[in-house]
Amino acid sequence: MSNLPPKSKLSPVLLTGGNGFVAYHIIAKILSEEPDCSIHSLDVNIDRNRHPNTNVHYHRADLASAVDVERVIQIARPLTIFHTASPEFSNAPVSAYYHIIVDGTHHLLDAAVKVGTVRALINTSTPGVINDNHSDLIDATEEMPILRYPQQKRIYCLAKAAAEEAIQAANRNGGHNDRGVLTCSIRPGLVFGEHDAGTLGKMFTVAQQGRSKFQMGNGQNPYDFVYAGNLADAHLLAAHALLECWGKPRSADSNARVDGEIFNITNDDPWFFWDFQRAVAAETGNPVLPEHIIAIPKWLGLTMGFVSEWVVWAISGGTRTPNMTREGIRFSTLIRTLNIDKAKRVLGYRPKVNMQEGIQTSVRWFMKQAKKDI
To answer: CA-CA distance, 238 to 260, in Å (whole number)?
Structure first.
């Protein structure tokens, strides 16, 4: 028998962006750990990534609307909130990022305080808040400074930085109340997994089309990825840790604090970015031999991205996003690795699914979906 104390109950739970693929994995982990948990999803699109469990309730609502957010929170009356909403890989226009991410976060925090039931709020942030998408990020720690304009020009990252800071500042209602909402933020590496229509979905399509032989740059840029199931584990670890801290003074040991903190989460196994793409291709049955790799110089890739952006803009009048962009080229040629010592030490986080297993599981899911669509 285990001598470990029983885990705190998470229920009721609210997830923003609850029909996104990261939230899908978090819900699956909650249900496996706490089958009778009452779970509420807040999302603008509730038709995708649904769990059939009757304990999971889906609410169509817009984070940018304070009325919508308060309505759902009053219904859910959550103890635990996972704030995973992100419009980066959705159809939302870039102009909407601030309203969804920043205004939405403030609406969530205001409603959480007003309902009076919330004890723990875990925010899914991004390491993009400390990276300008031009410079390498090597073994980055949580203490690195958040970038501001003009160093940071990505609207998405500027909005996520503002949201992250608001959530950190809201911890314990400004630090004066041991019984206030406890908060923390998680910055994951590049997330992949089943239901990932963004990064992995695009890589899967490229692989099936036999285009994985193309590589931008020299391919020698290590990158930190994280399998979505492992990221979900980290979210639950953080939630349990916050709930255990609730009602107690903040830890005097800065090396053991959870509330008001930020945690990097990865698979703890950096891969070269383009090796990951080729591993996906191999799992689809389209392996790329080393001698077949076509390396396109970064400068040429950026030129191609520039032309692609302008052509698509001219044809669509600015309503469509091109498949190839300069930002995407830079993204795939940078070094981006994160130090996760803090998450290991404080949360006890260890990735349960390794990179190869995660890729195999994810690609098998995509293969099954592709067969259904035939």
So the answer is: 11
101, 87 in Cβ contact below 8 A? Answer: yes
Q: Please give the model's pTM, rounded to 2 decimal places.
A: 0.94
* 42 φ, ψ (degrees, to nearest 5): -110, 120
Write out the E strands in the chain: 13-16, 39-43, 56-60, 80-83, 120-124, 137-140, 182-188, 190-192, 214-216, 222-223, 225-227, 261-265, 271-272, 294-296, 336-338
Q: Which residues contact 112 (CB under 8 A, 6 or more apart)?
A: 73, 78, 81, 118, 121, 181
Q: Are 186 and 123 in contact (CB under 8 A)?
A: yes
Task: Tokens for 4, please give them.
Answer: 């470990």
Beta bridge partners of 207: none
**Distance, CA of 287 to CA of 306 (rounded, Å):** 30
DSSP H helical ranges for 198-297: 199-208, 228-245, 273-283
**262, 168 contact by CB (below 8 A):** yes
| Among the listed residues 109, 98, 36, the one whose alpha carbon sits nearest the alpha carbon of residue 69 | 109
- Closest CA relative to residue 34, chosen from 227, 172, 173, 236: 236
Domains of the chain: 13-195+225-267+336-352 (3.40.50.720)
pLDDT digit string, tens, across residues 173-216: 854 566 789 999 999 999 999 999 989 999 999 999 999 999 99
Between CA 17 and CA 24 the distance in angstroms is 9
Cα dihedral 212, 218, 219, 223 sign: negative
* CA distances, 224 to each of 120, 195, 216, 265, 358 (Å): 27, 20, 18, 9, 13
Please tell me what DSSP assigns to residue 94. G
Below-50 pLDDT ranges, the chain: 1-2, 175
pLDDT digit string (tens) for 25-75?
999 999 999 999 999 999 999 999 999 999 999 999 999 999 999 999 999
Spatial contact of 184 and 242, defined as CB atoms under 8 Å apart = yes
Strand-pairing partners, residue 173, are none
**How many Å apart are CA 250 and CA 172, to the nearest integer?**
9
Using CA atoms, how far apart are residues 96 and 253, in angstroms rounded to an integer? 40
